[in-house]
Amino acid sequence: MQMLYNSDSFAVLQIEFGAPDAEADGDKRGGFEIVDKFARKGIFIEGAVAQCFKDGVQALIESGPNQEAMDEYIAGYTALAQQPVVLH
User: What is the pTM of this model?
Assistant: First the structure.
């Protein structure tokens, strides 16, 4: 698990599953966990949706990133969030 983005509104974590040697076998899986801090909800995306998210973030970074643009982009994905964030 790796923290990729953290603002007052959102946190984005990259999560990878599989054995340490799974990448060599092409069996490595993963995705992104996106948490909306104000709504206290999160979503996990993987597969094609995760790739679209990653491509969009990369395009924002290349065009001169700013926090407002990044938060606005991420908000489009958290609109689908259903899972409440629970602290233990």
Answer: 0.79
Q: What is the pLDDT along the chain (88 residues), one digit of tens a residue?
A: 899 999 999 999 999 887 565 555 555 689 999 999 999 999 999 999 999 999 999 999 898 878 999 999 999 998 888 777 776 4
The answer to whether 29 and 16 have CB atoms below 8 angstroms apart is yes
Q: What is the Cα–Cα distance from 85 to 20, expressed in whole angstroms?
A: 29
Residue 32 · residue 44 · CB < 8 Å:
yes
- DSSP characters over the chain: -EEEEE-SSEEEEEEEES-TTHHHHT--EEEEEEEETTTTEEEEEEHHHHHHHHHHHHHHHHT---HHHHHHHHHHHHTT--EEP---
Residue ranges per structural domain of the chain:
2-84
